[in-house]
């Protein structure tokens, strides 16, 4: 017999009754029923109930076991009485009578329990992650992650892609976040960077004549943490293709993403890829207040500025006299009660706004009546025009926000989400996808007016070189994101493979040709030797698994994540370097003031 086990804790069935077996695993739970010990033995695969009574030669050893001891059990398989069968587990028809016990690893007092579903502070869970990972839900999440990655790889190979690895130590590159810098010992005073993405390398792979590339790539960004984003590193499905246009990329990656969600989505509806809408960036902000809309929610915001211009509602009327302002309405079907409207008004105040105007429609004396402060101020004609524009009726409501869109869109998007969830309008049993397209290439800083890239700087502008001769803020790029249920899953672009267009594009953002050659010399040089048109994208593995696992916290699907302060409490990182390390690198640490 094997030194540790003849079967896993998920293998044994009624057909094994009478056999002598050996199991190994962790003591999950112990129950003492009048001197008879019942122990749930757990390994990665499942749970088997083992038992021991005073007649067993191993009884004294079994009595000494405690939760999370790692043990080996020798025993005989017995059938459970019919009344004691546990249909919830595969091994529920049998139990193993213990004849021998060996403790392979004793356990100290536990800082958190593996058995049960108790809640523990995240700091405790991360400090003792190896215990947290033993819990059933975490085992399930990590297996899901592994299976998703395996499925993605197979689907990419089936589409004719080959997997290549790109460097982890490289040069700094502007990808929209801070780099993690690595000091060079051989070149004192100089630094490498951990790649924010394999962006330049995957483009160079295309220039090198490889037609289709993919990689499950680690990416490193020194970012402020969020629930749906790791503050240090993450993994993405990185891909690139030659001789393609934007639609070719969509047609390639969409079936891969849809297939993964169909395979692991637990039966939820997955919209067919050919039905995924392509929504221009400006339209997404207008209708949803965000470039990653949750289309499970049918609510679409509308511009209703004309109904308030010159109206009796002075706040909006005066506001609309200023350039760049507008009033948007958030329809709320079935939300037509003063109680609900007051609740949403309070929500807006918590978000830092003075409030959120509203109108709701009710039946009064057999007729339709508009109610609420706004209705009284703007009068019945304007109120009726708003109702007709929004397609609302009795029992419905609408909420209004005004000002410069950039100032209120974040709250508007959040309000749309809350309204959809509270009124039961959001379809929780669906994965709804949308391509967001036509991103602006540039944005201007509101204070300084300085123009900079708003998205990927290596994207091809729509209209090519000629598009860069006008107003930079009017230039659109062949850039695109894929949104799902309110999260950005994929981001990509058709690349700028023409040096003369690249130099002009960077010039508009304040980077001269000399600086571009210095920072991106490898890619600029390569583009002078017959670069093919190419494009691609990257899909966030962590975020995909997060959605499939039904959680909104990305740390629930990462094996060993950092905490919100970018600290690894288990490994004590970041840590202080030794004096010898600093001397070798020619560095010293200055104390913070």
Structural summary, described in words:
- With 593 residues, this protein is an alpha+beta fold.
- 29% of the residues lie in helices and 25% in strands.
- The chain has 17 helices and 24 strands.
- It has an eight-stranded mixed β-sheet, sandwiched between helices. Strands 1-2-3-5-4 form a five-stranded mixed barrel. A five-stranded antiparallel β-sheet has the order 13-14-17-15-16.
- Helix 4 runs antiparallel to helix 6 and helix 4 (136-158) packs across helix 16.
- It is globular.
- The protein starts with 19 loop residues before the first strand and ends in an 8-residue tail after the last helix.
- The mean pLDDT is 94.
Task: Briefly summarize what is shown.
The protein has 17 helices and 24 strands. It is an alpha+beta fold and 593 residues long.
What attributes characterize this protein structure?
single chain; 593 residues; alpha+beta; five-stranded mixed β-barrel; 29% helix
Number of separate helices: 17
Using only C-alpha atoms, the radius of gyration works out to 30 Å
Give the uncertain stretches in residue-range form: none
For the largest beta-sheet, the strand count, sense and barrel status come to: 8 strands, mixed
Mean pLDDT: 94
Helix content: 25-40%
How far the N terminus sits from the C terminus, by CA atoms, comes to 65 Å
Question: Which class do the helix and strand fractions yield?
Answer: alpha+beta
- Mass-distribution shape: globular
Count the E strands. 24
Question: Biggest sheet: strands side by side, in what order?
Answer: 6-9-10-24-23-22-19-12
